[in-house]
């Protein structure tokens, strides 16, 4: 991997002086916001992979890295204003915002302002605009102590999940960044920011939004993102990064860069009418129409749906299926609520997927529903926002003995 020249500078907004790292050229520019405990260099490996085509700008958020640490004013709104201030000073008129974890919550507020020049948003394991569950005093206490010592940070790494393990160099970077944060910045997240309700910003988001989750993230798992982030942002699409815990930009920078690059390719060019996303619809698309969502993305959404089948989490359907979706299974009524009721009554389902085939706006899944000892072929149709709008299925009970001696799932030739 060739490393591009990294430019380090400071940007002074009306409120604070921030350390900024830049590399690369090309539009749209990418503006990166790090997690609680991170810094601009959280994004270095991702930026290195995108700098040949896009100008990359990473910000040390206030109180972290080399940025100024004001004595107060550590609300999500303050950090959002900081990001907007950097965009203004750097005169970015065509950019995509990329936020991870805490930075993802900040990015949702920025996008809700509908700033000029914003073309899209990528939220990587973002903290939801509203916490998915009440934040207890005990949890706040644990967070407040997490970054006080080296041992505390390393213990936290085991909790947040670095699925395949970070290199020794990256582990030291995480320790250094986490312990170097100003006390007021370090304490602001557990004390107030994590529980802030910024959901009023979501209705203002009018650009395409991609949400990236990780298959082994214990902090913001995919099913939580589907229900508490994707379902609340009109037109948002969900994609899953494999073999990663919560620290996705550090663990899987190539995969993150690939997802961002593909997202940029799908964006409408700056200045072209129709840059905003449309709301989900179950009306026929008139063929294999694919715009915002891709066949690969749709397969990943199906993975999330089957994960919800296994866990019994029917609330996750809200981020995957449109409300008025069309059902062709004769035992279930039309609409998302009906399929939610069906699987709520069934409880967690033991299902093994053997084949997933995607073409155009259709995904076919060949699976073994062990709970009912049934072989199933499901066919799902997606709209151009990446949500399921229609479903067909063929079910076949599995006999004890087959006439040909073959099972119903293996590929034998």
Strand content: 15-25%
Any guess at the CATH architecture of the largest domain? Answer: 3-Layer(aba) Sandwich
> Taking strands numbered 1, 2, ... along the chain, how are they ordered across the largest sheet?
1-2-4-3-5-6-7-8
CATH topology call of the largest domain: Rossmann fold
Query: What sequence of helices (H) and strands (E) makes up the elements?
Result: EEEHEHEHEHHHHEHEHHHEHEEEE
The CATH H-level homologous superfamily of the largest domain: Alpha/Beta hydrolase fold, catalytic domain
Write the layout of secondary structure elements.
Blueprint: E1 7-12, E2 17-23, E3 29-33, H1 44-50, E4 56-59, H2 76-89, E5 95-100, H3 102-112, E6 118-124, H4 137-146, H5 150-160, H6 168-180, H7 183-191, E7 209-214, H8 222-228, E8 237-241, H9 248-251, H10 253-266, H11 295-311, E9 321-327, H12 336-346, E10 351-359, E11 362-369, E12 374-382, E13 388-397
List keywords for this structure.
single chain; 413 residues; alpha/beta; Rossmann fold; Nuclear Transport Factor 2, Chain: A; 2 domains; five-stranded mixed β-sheet; 12 helices; globular
Structure characterization notes:
- Helices cover 31% and strands 22% of the residues.
- It is of the alpha/beta class.
- The protein folds into 2 domains: 7-266, Alpha/Beta hydrolase fold, catalytic domain (Rossmann fold, 3-Layer(aba) Sandwich); 295-311 and 321-397, Roll (Nuclear Transport Factor 2, Chain: A), CATH 3.10.450.
- The strands form 2 sheets. Strands 1-2-4-3-5-6-7-8 form an 8-stranded mixed sheet, sandwiched between helices. Strands 9-13-12-11-10 form a 5-stranded mixed sheet, covered by helices on one side.
- A hairpin with a 4-residue loop joins strand 11 (362-369) and strand 12 (374-382).
- Helix 1 (44-50) crosses helix 10 (253-266) and helix 2 (76-89) packs across helix 3 (102-112).
- It is globular, with a radius of gyration of 22 Å.
- The two termini are 40 Å apart.
């Amino acid at each position: 991997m060739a490393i591009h020249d990294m430019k380090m500078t400071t940007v002074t907004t009306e409120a604070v002086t921030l350390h900024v790292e830049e590399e690369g050229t090309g539009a749209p520019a990418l503006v990166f916001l790090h997690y609680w405990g991170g810094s601009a260099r959280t994004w270095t490996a991702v930026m290195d992979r995108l700098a040949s085509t896009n100008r990359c700008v990473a910000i040390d958020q206030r109180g972290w890295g080399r940025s100024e640490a004001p004595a107060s004013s550590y609300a999500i709104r303050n950090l959002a204003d900081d990001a907007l201030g950097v965009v203004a000073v750097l005169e970015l008129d065509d950019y995509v915002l990329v936020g991870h974890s805490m930075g993802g919550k900040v990015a949702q507020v920025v996008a809700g302002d509908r700033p000029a020049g914003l073309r899209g948003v990528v939220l990587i394991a973002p903290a939801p605009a509203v916490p998915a569950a009440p934040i207890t005093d005990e949890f706040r206490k644990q967070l407040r102590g997490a970054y006080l010592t080296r041992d505390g940070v390393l213990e936290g790494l085991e909790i947040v999940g670095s699925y395949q393990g970070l290199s020794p160099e990256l582990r030291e970077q995480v320790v250094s960044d986490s312990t170097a944060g100003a006390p007021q910045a370090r304490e602001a997240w557990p004390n107030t920011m994590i529980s802030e309700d910024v959901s009023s910003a979501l209705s203002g988001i009018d650009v395409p939004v991609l949400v990236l989750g990780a298959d082994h993230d214990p902090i913001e798992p995919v099913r939580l993102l589907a229900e508490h982030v994707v379902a609340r942002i009109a037109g948002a699409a969900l994609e899953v990064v494999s073999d990663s815990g919560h620290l996705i930009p550090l663990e899987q920078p190539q995969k993150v860069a690939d997802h961002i690059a593909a997202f940029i390719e799908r964006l409408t060019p700056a200045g072209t009418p129709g840059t905003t996303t449309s709301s989900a619809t179950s009306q026929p698309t008139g063929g294999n129409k694919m715009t915002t969502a891709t066949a690969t993305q749709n397969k990943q959404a199906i993975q999330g749906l089957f994960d919800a089948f296994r866990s019994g989490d029917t609330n996750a359907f809200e981020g995957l299926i449109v409300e008025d979706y069309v059902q062709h299974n004769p035992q279930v009524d039309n609409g998302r609520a009906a399929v939610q009721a069906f699987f709520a009554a069934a409880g967690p389902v033991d299902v093994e997927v053997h084949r997933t085939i995607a073409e155009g706006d259709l995904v076919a899944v060949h699976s073994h529903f062990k709970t009912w000892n049934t072989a199933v072929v499901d066919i799902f149709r997606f709209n151009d926002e990446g949500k399921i709008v229609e479903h067909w299925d063929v079910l076949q009970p599995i006999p004890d003995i087959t006439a040909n001696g073959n099972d119903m799932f293996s590929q034998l030739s």
